[in-house]
Amino acid sequence: MLSFTFFGKAPNWLTIYVSLALSLVCGLRLMTWWTKRNAVLTDQKAAHELRRTNRIAGVLGIAFVSWAFALFPYGDVFAKVHIGLFLAIAMLGSMLCLIHLRSAALIVATTVSIPFVAFFASTGIPSFVGMAINVMLVTVAVIIVILIQYRDFTRMVEAQTKTEMLSNENLRLANLDSLTDLPNRRAFFTALGEAFERARSKGTRLALGIIDLDGFKPVNDLYGHAAGDRLLIEVAGRLDSFCAAHDTFVSRLGGDEFAYIVTDASDDAGLIARGEEIAALLSAPFALPDAIVQISGSVGIAVYPETASSAEQLFERADYALYHGKSARRGGAVLFSADHEAQINRDSRIEQALKLADFDTELSIVFQPIVDVRSQTTVCFEALARWISPTLGRVSPAQFIPVAERAGIIGSLTRPLLRKALTAATAWSGNMRLSFNLSAYDLNSAEGTLAIVSIIRNSGFDPRRLDLEITETAFTHDFEQVSRSMEMLRLLGCGISLDDFGTGFSSLSRLHALPLTKIKIDRSFVTDLHKRPASYKIVKSLLALSRDMNLDCVVEGVETREEMDVLRNLGSLMVQGYFYSPPIAEDQIRPFLDHPVNAALQAS
Ligand code: C2E
Ligand code: CA
Ligand code: CA
Known about the structure:
Blueprint: H1 2-6, H2 12-35, H3 43-71, H4 77-97, H5 102-122, H6 126-174, H7 185-202, E1 206-214, H8 216-223, H9 225-245, E2 249-254, E3 257-262, H10 268-283, E4 286-287, E5 292-293, E6 296-304, H11 311-328, E7 333-335, H12 338-356, H13 359-362, E8 363-372, E9 377-389, E10 393-395, H14 397-407, H15 411-426, E11 433-437, H16 440-443, H17 446-459, E12 466-471, H18 479-492, E13 495-501, H19 508-513, E14 518-521, H20 523-526, H21 533-548, E15 552-555, H22 561-570, E16 574-576, E17 584-585, H23 589-594, H24 599-603
Parallel strand pairs: 6-7, 9-11, 11-12, 12-13, 13-14, 14-15, 15-16
Antiparallel strand pairs: 1-3, 1-6, 2-3, 4-5, 8-9, 8-16, 8-17, 9-10
Helix pairs in contact: 2-3, 3-5, 4-5, 4-6, 5-6, 8-9, 12-14, 15-17
This protein binds ligand C2E and calcium ion (2 copies).
The site of one calcium ion has 4 residues, from strand 13.
């Protein structure tokens, strides 16, 4: 518009060429802004752009002022006023546009207003001097507004950044395990959910591995929690570097449980191999500040889509493979299989049948003699549960007891069984003992234990002739409560036997703290004892241990003459097993005691 006012009055190079050049620069600038309007810049790039705006503001300010002043001599009064108006409005407008970049706004203010005021004031024309003062006052006012606005703007941005950083940090912490710095359980399930959705939509395989440490508890008990924490950190370190190298997401689920996700799950053999590698990784010794410890890790693996149809099921099944694999084989990897699937189905059928069962009529008890080797007499009978379900037929206690424990109904089996066993035993003569199996779940509450105490009291059977058998795994539940329950039963006069000894992981120091009267060496060490030097050594040292600790000892599962001969040479005192007799019905006890006719007993 200014060019238009001066067209024909000022030389063409001023009104056309310079004016076009300046318009071109402004046009280019405008286009740049427009095309970049949605771009997300890095902090560095943004700072660079802002500095450039500063420079351009100065250059353009000087260019426009110079151009306007160059036109000044060619105009009449009206045209000269137009110059003043143009400069004042353009300056104030630019400053407003640059309100969020204080430096650029101030550069425009100085490069335009100072020459402007000086130039118009120096004309000596009162109206122009007045205009100069007007513009100066407005510029000062606008500068003040800009300074205040800019201060508030900066504060707002700072506050926002701080909240963002804080919430990012909170998010990070909420997904991180504070001890090991691995992703935590929550992060794991988020990652699992995402990986699962991806696998489903792309139709790819997905594997999940759960790792559980074997032997972590004893380290914690023996060396203290600080050492336990140290061990977990070391374990996490090994897992982290292994998984980082294999592009696998690993996290700590809690306690001594870890889990990993394999998104490039190729073949089952590869998955098991990777699981075995992880297990092997954990069985190398750990150097803690106070000791060098050795543990191992077991791994359970499940694969989508073969064995699971949802992320939850994938997790449950890996967990199942882990715990069922663990009882068969520690320190290795187990893939959830069709057998596991069948077992889950069978267990759920058993659970259904148990929930409908009438325990008084469906449950019965058989008794297996425990024989004193030296006197060759039966000194005790172990009561073993038998269940004939109307729907499933005969079910082994090795199957239905664990199901009842998991379903939380073991107490309603134990009570009728104990009553039946005690009723049968009351008829026995002399000092024949009764041994009865309790589940850990029977002892992990005071009420449960009191119920057992009152059944024993009311039976009329002398508690001093009763042994209660519990397994080592009982103490993995609630060590304190189980010990207290055992004390209570000891006070009543009952003996306490540690069943299946040698299969668990209990530390000897812990064993010592328990009010035990007897240990029962597990069948697995006895089978083919004469052919397996390792078993021989274990049984020998367990016998020595029981003698040292002043505990009675029963060797379980003796089946053959060869095994029996070795045991006799080791000085074993009490023996139980098919060699003498399988479990027998109550009405066979009398004949058995009168005529220990089985060939084994006579021959020995
Ligand atoms: P357990 O307490 O270790 O019982 C010994 C098991 O070994 C019995 O199996 C017995 O029949 C079997 N056995 C005995 N001698 C031999 C032998 O020479 N060779 C072989 N191969 N096996 C032998 P059963 O009766 O099937 O019981 C299995 C498990 O179920 C028991 O193991 C026990 O843990 C549990 N159980 C049985 N009855 C009860 C009960 O009333 N309450 C609880 N809580 N658990 C029970
Ligand atoms: Ca037993
Ligand atoms: Ca046993």
